[in-house]
Design goal:
Blueprint (H helix, E strand, L loop, with lengths): L4 E8 L2 E9 L3 E3 L2 E8 L2 E22 L7 E4 L9 E4 L9 H10 L18 E5 L1 E5 L6 E7 L7 E6 L4 E6 L4 E17 H15 L17 E5 L1 H4 L5 H14 L5 E4 L21 H10 L4 E6 L3 E3 L3 H5 L14 E3 L5 E3 L5 H18 L3 E4 L15 H15 L4 E4 L4 H4 L5 E3 L12 H6 L6 H10 L9 E3 L14 H14 L2 E4 L8 H12 L6 E4 L3 E5 L3 E6 L7 E4 L1
Parallel strand pairs: 14-15, 14-24, 15-16, 16-20, 20-21, 21-22, 22-23
Antiparallel strand pairs: 1-2, 1-5, 3-4, 4-5, 5-12, 5-13, 6-7, 6-9, 8-11, 9-10, 10-13, 11-12, 17-19, 18-19, 25-26, 26-27, 27-28
Helix pairs in contact: 11-12, 12-13
């Protein structure tokens, strides 16, 4: 990290005037000073102030020589966000024009964090969270990686400009008040892809504080876990009868299954987790969990612990538990259900409530696999003199420790705070019943439900698998009913999930499979081989296997294809 420029912008509480200082090396400037402690590839930055200040911005500028063949990996804001390598003439963008028009009602920018940090949306400009890497060209086996070693000091955003040849490393520190010291750690490394990621995540793990390290599902690098989830077929239309039926047929088809998970729809409203819909589950959830366990399979349950929908009793009865903006208005976290809001995880009453919920679900009902969704709600706004990154890290620490008797699957979560705090983590978008969702969704927002976006993330976030958690690429589907994907699209989804993921869920009613579907089902859950080579060329993802080439166009709604060699 030579020839850097570090800029710090702050103000004093008694004076709103902003002060800016720029450092080219350690030393003093005005009433603040910079110290840098280097340890191998790790750089620790310590900024001290003569008195307490309000911190507004800290960023580092470094130069990089990009070429017309350069590739830039951009890690999206959270698990659903598009994350892949880009060609230098592309860009990362925010909402489309249609998305901006409907954003006020649907809060689309909350899902990708662009209500707080906006992409420039210009050609050759890129935005990446927590870490990024650069390649000389599509064929290069070596990468140059820049990364944060903790998001507790604030999210780390890499703002890359391929035209000016600048990488700006920003710390999302807005909201810190009356501080005398600000510290953060960065990592820089160069070399072969897997070796660099091994070193980077080893260094990251050494910095982890706040909670225990989950390793149980990382030890066997080749192990695949399989199971059933109710969501991608029944969605909220679930019932005790449907659970019993699919539990029977799925475990008949896959007697070595690991997990059977009940998704959204068992509860009356999001937030009221212990109010079970007795019309759907007249015998309650405890008997369902017991039935699942009787098949020697882990019972799983979905919930979104930091979210609460507007129609819930929790929202109506505890308005003081809701995160509010600077004008004291509840800050919308998204448009799902009846619209939903974030619970303030710093509120002791919120923690008490969630501890009661988890104790009931795990120790009374008996669900020992929890899919925890929409987790970004915890850090929707900076508050309580904490950055969004600190709030997210503390929220994930809370889940890790409170649910220490359960296996955790994180979803809808900024990834850095999830490292080693969950056993499994989603690493891509929800799949769609079509290849790339409905036209109006494609025209509105990049961060959408999309099978195409899901498989692209599964390939390009492969470096996370079995290093920081086990990757959940979302479900595969082989069924012909209630699915608009053709055979090629379903084959590609299953093949890539199997080759690059570690958790292989389906929502299909597997008793309806024919012989060909059965054969592919067993190939998928056993684990298929990765491609020999993956690269982006002309806005197309190419995967070259021994016997075939998979071609996935990344623009418009062009269908994927398979070329057999």
């Amino acid at each position: 990290m030579e020839n850097f420029k570090l800029k710090v912008i702050y103000s004093h509480g008694y004076n709103s005037k902003r002060i800016a200082h720029e450092f080219h090396k350690p030393g003093s400037c005005g009433d603040c000073q910079l110290e840098i402690v280097k340890n191998g590839n790790e750089y620790n930055f310590i900024i001290g102030f003569a008195e307490g200040v309000n911190l507004h911005n800290v960023y580092i500028k470094i130069k990089h020589d990009f070429t017309s063949d350069s590739r830039i990996f951009c890690n999206g804001y959270q698990s659903w966000s598009v994350s892949r390598e880009y060609c230098i003439d592309e860009k990362t963008s925010g909402l489309t024009l249609l998305g901006k028009i409907i954003n006020k009602r649907y809060a689309l920018d909350r899902y990708n964090g662009q209500d707080q940090i906006k992409s420039k949306g210009r050609k050759s400009t890129f935005l990446s969270y927590t870490y990024t890497y650069l390649k000389e060209n599509k064929d290069s086996k070596n990468i140059k990686l820049f990364g944060s070693l903790s998001e507790r000091s604030g999210f780390t955003i890499f703002d890359i400009d391929g035209i000016s040849g600048e990488i700006i490393i920003r710390k999302d520190c807005e909201g810190l008040e009356n501080i005398n010291k600000y510290m953060f750690s960065l990592y820089e490394d160069e070399g072969e892809y897997d070796e660099v990621f091994d070193r980077y995540f080893n260094a990251y793990r050494l910095k982890k504080t706040g909670s225990s390290v989950r390793l149980a599902y990382l030890e066997d690098k080749n192990r695949k876990y399989s199971g059933f989830t109710t969501w991608y077929n029944f969605y909220q239309d679930i019932s005790q009868r449907k659970i019993h039926k699919n539990l029977y047929y799925y475990t008949q088809k896959n007697p070595t299954a690991d997990i059977f998970q009940i998704d959204d729809g068992y509860q009356c409203f999001v937030g009221d987790w212990l109010d079970v819909d007795l019309g759907k589950f007249p015998n309650g959830m405890k008997k369902i969990a017991s039935k699942i366990k009787s098949k020697n399979i882990i019972p799983g349950l979905w919930l979104a612990p930091f979210s609460v929908e507007k129609k819930s009793k929790l929202f109506k009865e505890h308005p003081d538990w809701i995160v509010r903006d600077s004008k004291n208005r509840p800050y919308k976290a998204g448009s799902n259900w009846s619209g939903f809001y974030a619970l303030d995880i710093d509120n002791r009453n919120v923690k008490n409530y969630l501890e009661k919920v988890f104790d009931t679900i795990i120790n009374d009902w008996g669900f020992t696999f929890l899919k925890l969704d929409f987790l970004y709600s915890a850090c929707i706004l900076p508050r309580n003199n904490k950055t969004r990154g600190q709030l997210m890290c503390e929220a994930m620490d809370f889940l890790n420790e409170t649910c220490n008797k359960a296996v955790l699957l994180g979803c809808g979560v900024p990834l850095g705070p999830a490292f080693w705090n969950v056993d499994f983590c989603r690493i891509g978008a929800d799949i769609s019943l079509e290849w790339d969702n409905k036209p109006y969704m494609r025209f509105a927002v990049k961060e959408r439900v999309s099978s195409r976006n899901s498989v692209v993330n599964t390939v390009f976030r492969k470096h996370l698998d079995k290093r920081v958690f086990a990757n959940d690429p979302d479900v595969f589907m082989l069924r012909t009913s209630n699915c608009c994907m053709d055979y090629v699209e379903k084959y590609i989804l299953g093949n890539i999930n199997s080759a690059y993921g570690s958790l292989l869920f389906t929502s299909d009613e597997v008793e309806e499979y024919d012989d060909a579907q059965d054969k592919l089902f067993y190939e998928i859950i056993k684990g298929m081989d990765k491609a020999k080579r993956e690269y982006i060329d002309d806005k197309t993802l190419m995967l070259e296997f021994e016997d075939k080439k998979i071609i996935i166009p990344l623009k418009d709604n062009i269908k994927p294809s398979i070329v057999y060699l």
